[in-house]
């Protein structure tokens, strides 16, 4: 039983294509869309699909809350659970590349490795910090520790009371998964989604990421 959880906030422009990309994949048994209090037509579009279980939160609670809401539903019956962003469009279909290594028991967790960004973003400081932090604390060298497109065996998710998403928390979760003895595999996918550019908004976002990843790494170093 494979479930895919899609948290969505004001994604009326992309949610239809994102669902279209995965709704006919034979390896997926359940699609759960959690509308995070959108003010547009995201919920109406998602709920128009009979094959999609759609839920709407009363107000915007953040991606982490929406994911955990969906996770409580998926954990009841699923053996394999994946997280996808709502803005992937039809490239969401690439998630099957993340699912099959789990089904074939090649690993316990897969993480999507995106192709190089089409537009200039930051200067790579956040990515380098995340990569070096994971290497220092686990000995493993991963390139995509910031990616939110992931598929898990249920037993891995049971290790966490809830999924702590936020700026850079994926990095902390990756470290915990490896140190608990689970195997992570990065999979190259041809996915695309909204990118943060080299502008004020983009630099503020990356600054927050850098700060929070630093805090997480310092805490884990002090505990080790």
UniProtKB/TrEMBL annotation:
It comes from the Bacteria. One of its GO terms (molecular function) is transferase activity. InterPro entries: Glyco_trans_2-like, Glycosyltransferase_2, Nucleotide-diphossugar_trans. It holds the Pfam family Glycos_transf_2. Signal peptide: none annotated. Keywords: Transferase. Residues 3-157 form the Glycosyltransferase 2-like domain. This is Glycosyl transferase family 2. It comes from Tepidibacter thalassicus DSM 15285.
């Amino acid at each position: 039983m494979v479930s895919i959880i899609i948290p969505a906030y004001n994604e009326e422009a992309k949610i239809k294509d994102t669902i279209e990309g995965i709704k006919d994949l034979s390896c997926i048994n359940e699609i759960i869309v959690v509308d995070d209090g959108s003010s547009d037509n995201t919920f109406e579009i998602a709920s128009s699909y009979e094959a999609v279980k759609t839920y709407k939160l009363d107000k915007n609670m953040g991606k982490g809350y929406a994911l955990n809401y969906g996770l409580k539903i998926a954990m009841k019956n699923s053996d394999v659970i994946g997280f996808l962003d709502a803005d992937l469009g039809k490239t969401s279909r690439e998630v099957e590349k993340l699912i099959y290594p789990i089904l074939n028991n090649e690993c316990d967790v897969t993480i999507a490795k995106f192709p190089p960004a089409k537009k200039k973003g930051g200067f790579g400081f956040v990515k380098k910090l995340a990569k070096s932090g994971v290497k220092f604390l686990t000995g493993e060298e991963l390139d995509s520790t910031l990616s939110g497109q992931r598929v898990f065996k249920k037993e891995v998710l049971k290790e966490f009371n809830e999924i702590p998403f936020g700026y850079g928390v994926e990095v902390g979760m990756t470290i915990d998964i490896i140190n608990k003895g689970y195997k992570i595999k990065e999979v190259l996918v041809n996915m695309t989604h909204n990118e943060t550019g080299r502008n004020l908004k983009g630099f503020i976002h990356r600054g927050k990421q850098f700060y929070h990843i630093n805090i997480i790494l310092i805490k884990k170093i002090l505990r080790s």
